[in-house]
Structures are given as C-alpha cells and as structure tokens.
C-alpha cells in the first residue's frame, strides 16, 4: 500500500496497531504513532498516565493529535532505533 506523508511527517513503518511517522515539534525530532478504533480509546486513557511521567530513562511523551478518525501519540524520537536493536 502506498503511504502518503502528511506535511511535516515522514512515514517510517506500519504495524498491527497503526502507522508511525517522524516529525518535528518545537524544534525537536518526534515520532507519531497513529492508531484508531478501540486501540485509540486505550491510548487516550494511557496518554493521561504518560503525561505525568518525567524520567530520563523513559522515552518522553510529547502530546496527542487527531488526524481524521485516528489518534496520534507523540513521543521523543530515538535515533538509535528500538531497545531490542540496542541490546
């Protein structure tokens, strides 16, 4: 399937729960994971918890955004890839 980038968003990957894009927010690189349906409802609840976490050992939560019927979860971009790739 052809992935179209939204302005300011670069498509990175697609998984079972949604699509992941790289973008910028306040001059910082972030990733945005778009989910919809029941997964979006769950992430909306979890985002309230993520908002309260502030620890250098945890990837930082940067906010949420709406794109049509999808919820976008904004997190810090980790340049070195996934945790499993670093281990």
UniProtKB/TrEMBL annotation:
It holds the Pfam family Pkinase. It comes from the Eukaryota. One of its GO terms (molecular function) is protein kinase activity. PROSITE patterns: PROTEIN_KINASE_DOM. Residues 6-87 form the Protein kinase domain. This is Protein kinase domain-containing protein. InterPro entries: Kinase-like_dom_sf, Prot_kinase_dom.
């Amino acid at each position: 399937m052809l992935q179209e980038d939204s302005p300011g968003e670069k498509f990175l990957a697609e998984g079972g729960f949604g699509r992941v894009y790289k973008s910028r927010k306040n001059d910082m690189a972030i990733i945005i994971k778009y989910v919809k349906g029941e997964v979006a409802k769950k992430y909306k609840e979890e985002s309230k918890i993520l908002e309260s976490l502030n620890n250098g050992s945890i990837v930082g939560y940067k906010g949420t955004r709406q794109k049509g019927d999808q919820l976008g979860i904004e997190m810090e971009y980790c340049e070195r890839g996934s945790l499993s790739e670093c281990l």
